[in-house]
Design a protein that fits this description.
There is one protein chain. The chain is flat. By secondary structure, it is an alpha+beta fold. It has three domains: 4-169 and 208-229, no CATH class; 254-369, Immunoglobulin-like, CATH 2.60.40; 378-585, no CATH class. The longest helix has 23 residues, at 35-57. α3 (176-183) packs antiparallel against α4. The strands form eight sheets. Strands 23, 25, 26, 29, 30, 31 and 32 form a seven-stranded mixed sheet that branches. Strands 1, 7, 8, 9 and 10 form a five-stranded antiparallel sheet that branches.
């Protein structure tokens, strides 16, 4: 029987999230303590403890659980520590975790979900509570009367690490606006207790995500770790001893205030956590408030200043510079009307500061993305990626294409833009095809299949909208070997034992202006598409193949279905490489 998973997915969590009146055993002499009642005893104790954890401690990290990258940046691991999940359950990591791939998203059960993350995106690493059964023992009595002889005798409370795309929700529970309302001047006739009660909405519902965010990981475009941001996104549950010391620190500042020293503070009102385009202004201005003991401060100079490389600020688009200073108004508000982001995609920061205060400086964060440009991409290719074309197929399209494979085989490529005719007519500079056959378990033979442009397709096989161009196999170029020499391809009527099994690899390279559209200005093809698991080194070696050449078996093994599908090609940047394949059974 071995180890088996008990809870996995949203249904198990949804049951625990519901508020319900608890039930506990009532004991009396002669009461039968069967499996149900003993489990009821455990559920009662666990449920009460988890409810108190969730509604009093909250969800977050109690200690440890640092996130570090491996030496090569390809994996991350989590150190020992303790956390409380969104349902109040304790998550205990007794020792450093095994390394996991930060570029591979996973589902609620920790299984790979979808293709790996491409480009310089961000992912979130979460830790989740996980139960599994273990330690099988012989069952003396079966509750169903069947022949089952073993049952697991333990429930192990463990954890699982999960990778999801993007950043988590803000860990802030009380917003700056709520802080301003609570610690501002209370309305006439209201106590501060009433203001807090009306401002904060304390709900019994658990958070939407029961797992605990540990860090946001920035990837470097090759699936490796570029940055690990921990403190900005995780919630930390501080001990009473730490909270007491913080209260003592606050009391000391109150004493300073009451002793005649003015203590001012600066807080963000709006404009934080915006998204924008590199080199362009944000949609909303940056607004802060200056207060002293909860009362607004007028005429306080506030200086807004982006970090180096993170753009310019100013009163309008014509007065942008490295800093912008403005006095607060009668309500204590100071506004920076324009923040134009810097040229680098990713998180950018700008500070606002006053001469003295607690705090005297706050930081605005914006996420800068690339400008959206309508780039040419590959919308479709026939034969499609990872398809197997079998001569025994009943599909008339497949059979017709294979019958023509000997006489006039062709490749159809559909673009979303009209591409420059001069480049289409010279495909060798950006488009190449290779036939791969296994000689034995250790050797794969690859041979170049020359391509010639045959013009636009009058009736594309796939019917994908766009501009479908046809490239015919044949007309050997210098240094290449044509596939269709006498005897190279057997007749389709041969017995199964004599059938040809091969894979055809299609490579595209968009670089140095070798394949552009007809627009003004002309745009280089955004070719990025990973339809194989070939490495960059292997693709480079194959690109250079002319006459038949031998390769190790890992090249054949890399031609698998990666899950990538057209028309989702490109990475919103000009250039890149397209690599796809299809199988032939003749």
């Amino acid at each position: 029987m071995g180890t088996s998973i008990m809870d996995c997915g949203q249904e198990a969590s949804a049951l625990l999230a519901r508020l319900s009146t608890p039930s506990r055993n009532r004991y009396f002499y002669g009461k039968l303590l069967d499996a149900y009642h003993l489990e009821l005893e455990q559920r009662y104790g666990n449920g009460k403890r988890w409810l108190v954890n969730r509604l009093s401690l909250g969800t977050g990290v109690l200690c440890g659980l640092d996130v570090v990258a491996s030496a090569d940046g390809g994996r991350v691991r989590v150190s020992a520590g303790v956390a409380i999940d969104g349902l109040g359950r304790e998550i205990i990591v007794p020792q450093d975790s095994a390394g996991i791939d930060p570029a591979q998203p996973t589902d609620e059960c920790g299984r790979p979900e979808g293709p790996p993350v491409r480009g310089d995106e961000t992912v979130t690493l979460l830790i989740c509570y996980h139960e599994c059964e273990a330690e099988p023992v012989r069952a003396m009595v079966s509750e169903c009367g069947d022949e089952q002889e073993c049952e697991n005798g333990l429930v192990r409370e463990r954890y699982r690490l999960r990778i999801v795309r993007g950043e988590p929700a803000s860990p802030v529970i009380v917003t700056p606006e709520q802080c301003t309302t609570i610690f501002g001047q209370p309305p006439n006739g209201m106590s501060r207790r009433e203001v807090v009660c009306q401002t904060l909405d304390v709900r019994c519902d658990p958070p939407d995500e029961t797992c605990v965010p540990l860090a946001v990981i920035g990837l470097n475009g090759r699936g490796g770790v570029a940055t690990i941001r921990r403190c900005a996104f995780r919630r930390t549950l501080y001990s009473n001893a730490v909270l007491f010391d913080l209260i003592m620190c606050l009391a000391a500042r109150v004493d300073e205030c009451c002793g005649g020293l003015a203590v001012r503070s600066l807080m963000i009102v709006s404009g934080n956590n915006q998204g924008g385009t590199v080199g362009e202004p944000l949609a909303q201005p940056l607004v802060v408030r200056v207060v002293d003991g909860g009362a607004p401060v007028a005429n306080e100079p506030v200086t807004f200043e982006p970090l180096p490389g993170d753009g310019d600020v100013g009163a309008d688009a014509g007065s942008l510079g490295p800093s912008f200073t403005v006095n607060s108004d009668g309500g204590g508000l100071a506004t920076c009307p324009v923040w134009r982001l810097g040229p680098t995609p990713g998180a950018q920061r700008a500070t606002a500061r006053i001469a003295a205060g607690t705090p005297s400086l706050v930081t605005f964060v914006a996420k800068a993305g690339r400008a959206q440009v309508d780039l040419p991409v590959v919308r479709a290719i026939w034969p499609t990626n990872a398809v197997t074309l079998d001569a025994a197929s009943a599909d008339p399209i497949v059979r017709a294409w294979l019958e023509n494979f000997r006489a006039s085989p062709r490749l159809e490529v559909t673009f979303n833009h009209q591409m420059l005719a001069d480049h289409l007519q010279k495909p060798d500079g950006w488009l190449r095809a290779f036939l791969l056959r296994r000689q034995d378990e250790r050797v794969v033979e690859a041979r170049r299949m020359p391509l010639q442009y045959s013009g636009a397709a009058p009736s594309p096989i796939l019917g994908q909208a766009g501009f479908t161009e046809v490239f015919a196999f044949g007309g050997a170029a210098p240094g290449t070997t044509t596939l269709f020499a006498a005897g190279a391809v057997p007749s389709l009527t041969h017995a199964a034992a004599a059938r040809l099994e091969a894979r055809l690899l299609v490579l595209m390279r968009a670089e140095g202006g070798n394949i552009v559209d007809t627009g003004t200005p002309a745009r280089l093809l955004d070719a990025e598409f990973a339809g194989t698991r070939l490495t960059a080194v292997e693709r480079e070696a194959l690109w250079q193949v002319g006459a038949p050449q031998q390769f190790p078996p890992n090249v054949w093994a890399a031609l698998v279905d990666t899950g990538e599908r057209l028309p989702q090609s490109g990475d919103d940047a000009e250039g890149g490489q397209f690599h796809g394949w299809f199988a032939l059974v003749l």
